[in-house]
Automatic annotation (TrEMBL):
Keywords: Membrane, Transmembrane, Transmembrane helix
A GO cellular-component term linked to this record: membrane
Molecular function GO labels: transmembrane transporter activity
Topology of this chain in the membrane: Multi-pass membrane protein
One family name in Pfam for this protein: MFS_1
Annotated localization: Membrane
UniProt-recorded name of the protein: MFS general substrate transporter
Length: 445
């Protein structure tokens, strides 16, 4: 008898269906697709995205260009870590943070599949708030303290929350999952616009650096407590799904479209963050005032908020893959377009367009990976395995772009590198879509 079947009272039933029933007692086709409870969950995930991924975008305030010209650029480099470390060295804090946010998914994904939703969300929230508070009592000139708190601690905290937040949406939505995910992850884009403005006002206003950090930590703490009351899993996973980490790797990496998709995410993350991280600097080099240069990031994140919702509406009707491939392709073209941008209107137009299409990718990525899952109870594990590799792209992509830029600001080198990375990702997604469509026998993917 095949291993995937078991006998019961003289009959044969599929073991996979038993596990499916255990993992999803309401049945795969009986998801609410809406209702008050479902949209409260979306609101809760939105808040966690605002406080977590949205706050990572505020790292540019810690190690970026100030909105007020008289304050000068680079708070850490200019004041807190002055004359001890270069901006390139300090930038590793942000790179390691992004890497851990994604790679922690291999643990968080499996834990979520086994029913530890609240453990992950509460643990991640407490760690995030704690690390943020602790930044306010670090010693000036001590890079290792900031690296441990903002790089390692914050990265782990957000990583623990990300996949459970995306995974709980799959318990309430199937057909409308891309739209619900788009609304939820728009919180990170709006947070990326609001947190930097608040921190700049606090750091260079009456609060100062230390009290400003404490104020932001208190704000996040209050919002995360509210989010915990809003989010409620419909079911808490199944202990029947006991696949180990190595077994997960072996099983998932035999899936051709899944492997090609992972490769695509590595490429995209390797190039997607260069235009975002270097937009302010490029703006100033193009003669834009420092005040306006800072707000280009807010403009980009504002457009990203829209981009995380509108394309997902199309995904509900035309399919996730049919939406994400054009969006990533356009994003790669926009990176190359920056070779010819040398004015304020052009920079703002780029910020709007790139924010929109990069935001679309960020919101469509979870449902794209989810669509490759054989069962709902392995969604978290598949996302976790994918993000382990994706984190590598996020870790090395921006430092490579910075090294290509050099102190002489040779812009075409990182632009070509970034554009080729994102373009290669679009090609990988197109290939994965082709084989997935042939496997499922439909073009509506």
């Amino acid at each position: 008898m095949d291993d995937d079947t078991v006998c019961e009272k003289g009959g044969v039933i599929e073991l996979s269906k038993v596990e499916e029933a255990l993992a999803n007692p309401s049945g795969p086709n009986e998801l609410p697709e809406g209702g008050l409870r479902a949209w409260l969950v979306v609101a809760g995930v939105w808040i966690t995205q605002f406080c977590s991924f949205g706050y990572t975008n505020a790292y540019g305030v810690y190690n970026g260009t100030s909105a007020t010209p008289e304050c000068g650029p680079d708070y850490y480099v200019r004041i807190y870590l002055a004359e001890k470390y270069t901006s390139a060295q300090i930038s590793w804090i942000g790179s390691v943070q992004l890497f851990l946010v994604l790679s922690t998914g291999i643990v968080a994904g499996r834990a979520f599949d086994n029913g530890y939703f609240y453990h992950l969300m509460i643990g991640g929230s407490v760690l995030l708030v704690f690390c943020t508070y602790m930044v306010s009592i670090t010693q000036a000139g001590k890079l290792w303290q900031l690296f441990l708190l903002q790089g390692v601690g914050t990265g782990l905290a957000i990583g623990l929350m990300y996949i459970p937040g995306m995974g709980i949406l799959s318990q309430y939505f199937r057909r409308r999952r891309p739209f619900a995910t788009g609304i939820a992850v728009s919180g990170s884009a709006l947070g990326g616009a609001i947190h930097p403005m608040m921190l700049n006002a606090w750091f260079y206003g009456s609060l100062g650096f230390r009290n400003g950090v404490r104020a932001s930590a208190s704000l996040n703490a209050g919002l995360l407590i509210l989010a915990m009351f809003l989010m409620k899993p419909r079911y808490t996973g199944t202990k029947a799904y006991r696949m180990g980490t190595l077994e997960s790797f072996r099983k998932f990496l035999k899936d051709g479209p899944y492997v090609v998709t992972i490769l695509g995410t590595v490429f995209v993350f390797g190039g997607l963050y260069y235009p975002i991280y270097f937009l302010q600097l490029n703006s100033i080099k193009n003669g834009i005032s420092k005040g306006l240069a800072f707000y280009t990031i807010a403009i980009l994140n504002g457009a990203s908020t829209v981009g995380r919702i509108v394309p997902n509406l199309f995904a509900n009707y035309f399919g996730v893959w049919n939406t994400v491939v054009p969006c990533v392709t356009i994003a790669s073209i926009l990176v190359f377009v920056t070779l010819g941008i040398d004015s304020a209107p052009g920079t703002i137009a780029f910020a709007i367009l790139f924010g929109f299409f990069s935001g679309a990718y960020a919101s469509l990525l979870p449902p794209m990976i989810t669509s490759l899952s054989s069962h709902d109870y392995e969604i978290g594990a598949r996302m976790g395995v994918c993000f382990v590799f994706t984190g590598i792209g996020g870790l090395v992509g921006t430092p490579i772009a910075g090294a290509l830029l050099t102190s002489q600001f040779i812009w075409w080198r990182p632009i070509v590198f970034s554009g080729m990375c994102v373009g290669s990702g679009a090609i990988c997604f197109a290939i994965a879509r082709f084989f997935t469509a042939r496997k499922k026998g439909t073009q509506m993917l």
